[in-house]
Each structure stands twice: as structure tokens, then as C-alpha cells.
Design a protein that fits this description.
Layout lengths: L1 E3 H14 L4 H16 L4 H11 L7 E4 L3 E5 L3 H14 L5 E5 L4 H15 L1 E7 L5 E5 L2 E2 L12 E8 L14 E3 L2 H12 L7 H5 L11
Parallel strand pairs: 3-4
Antiparallel strand pairs: 1-9, 2-3, 4-8, 5-6, 5-8, 6-7
Helix pairs in contact: 1-2, 1-6, 2-3, 2-5, 3-6, 4-5
């Protein structure tokens, strides 16, 4: 089925709020899912699996040195977002090392959104080998780099975008393909954030307007 990018964003945001994530993280996840879908990845299915598995995540192990942040078993939607924020605040000399990431593709989506927001480029290196990828606002050079993220250790660095990487990628109100069963699960989860209509809720501003300014 076809769903607008705007509706996907807001439905994922509401579904994230429904499981207890804060507003900023929920907004970032919604944007990441749309970014992934625009680049040929099944962002909604990835989000649905992540939202269903939040309560079963393994315990996080984190250590921090001056220029390096190490995380074991991070969840991209929670600790991953915090790690990206730390890296943005420590460009050039900062490095994030993650092992056993719960969902590598979602992490790529969050990196793509952050790249656009902060005009940056992220460099990923896996297991210290010559297995690398760059994530910019316009895409990822190797979508399979984190396909086995549960069994990988990756290093993530950040530097300012330049040239074509610095070209702004405007918002689009396009329609994207979503599997019907996945969308129904996401919509049902998002529905939990809605307030039932009542006389009191209408008087406080919900639902149909009582004046021309509503």
C-alpha cells in the first residue's frame, strides 16, 4: 500500500511515544524510517520490529574516555541516538565504538537524518578491517555493512560535509510503499496515544473547534 512520507513520520513518532520513548527520540525515529524508505529500505518493518522488541533488549555496557565512547549491546533508538549526539559534539577527534548493535539498518537511518541536520558525514568501519561505509544525507555507500550487527564491532566517526555531500536535501511529501500488515500494527500502536473524545476534551481544545481560531 502507498502511504505519504508525512503520515509515516507522524505514525512512527506516535507509536514510539506509545512505548514510552521521549518526544525527541520519537521524532528522530520517525524521520529515520522515512529516510530509509526513500532509499529503498523497509523502514516501517524495521521500526515495527524495533518497537515490539524494546522490552527484551540486553543490558547496556558503556565506557567513556576523553575522545572515545564504547557501547556494548546499544539500541539505536535509545543509546544510539545519544551516541550520535555525543559524536556530533566531538567532531574530528571523537570516535564511537559499538558492539552487538540491536538493529544496524535503523542506526544507518538515524545517521542519515543526523547527517542532514548537522551537515555532516559519518564514516563506519567494521571490526577494524577494510570494511567501510559513508553515510550522508543523500544515502549510504554500503547498505550491507551492518547486516550482521549483532556479531560485529563497529567504529563510527564524524566530519563536516563538503562538496556534493553538503547539498541540502529538501523535504518531500511523497508516497512510499508499506506492507499492509506492518502498517496496521504501527497504526494500532500509534492509536494508543489518542485521547478518547469527551465533552471535557472538546472544551479543552481537542476535536472540532468551538471557534474560528481552532
Amino acid at each position: 500500500m502507498m502511504v505519504s512520507a508525512n503520515e509515516i513520520h507522524h505514525t512512527i513518532r506516535k507509536a514510539s511515544l506509545a512505548i514510552g520513548l521521549d518526544h525527541d527520540r520519537a521524532t528522530d525515529i520517525g524521520a529515520a524510517v522515512v529516510w530509509l524508505a526513500r532509499h529503498g529500505q523497509d523502514g516501517c518493518a524495521i521500526a515495527e520490529a524495533m518497537l515490539a522488541a524494546t522490552d527484551t533488549a540486553p543490558p547496556l555496557v558503556m565506557t567513556k574516555a576523553k575522545d572515545q565512547l564504547k557501547l556494548s549491546s546499544p539500541r539505536p533508538a535509545i543509546e544510539g541516538i545519544a551516541a550520535i549526539d555525543w559524536l556530533i559534539a566531538n567532531p574530528d577527534d571523537g570516535c564511537v565504538v559499538m558492539s552487538d548493535v540491536s538493529d544496524g539498518v535503523l542506526l544507518l537511518g538515524l545517521l542519515g537524518v543526523a547527517a542532514g541536520q548537522y551537515n555532516s558525514v559519518f564514516q563506519i568501519s567494521v571490526d577494524g578491517k577494510n570494511h567501510k561505509a559513508r553515510v550522508t544525507m543523500t544515502g549510504c555507500t554500503n547498505w550491507t555493512i551492518l547486516s550482521d550487527s549483532r556479531n560485529q564491532t563497529m567504529s563510527l566517526t564524524c566530519f563536516p560535509a563538503s562538496g556534493e555531500d553538503a547539498i541540502s536535501n529538501p523535504d518531500h511529501y511523497d508516497d512510499l510503499i508499506v506492507a499492509k500488515d506492518v502498517w496496521e500494527k504501527l497504526a494500532a500502536l500509534a492509536y494508543k496515544t489518542y485521547v478518547p473524545s469527551s465533552e471535557q476534551s472538546r472544551l479543552s481544545g481537542a476535536g472540532a473547534g468551538l471557534n474560528d481560531n481552532d
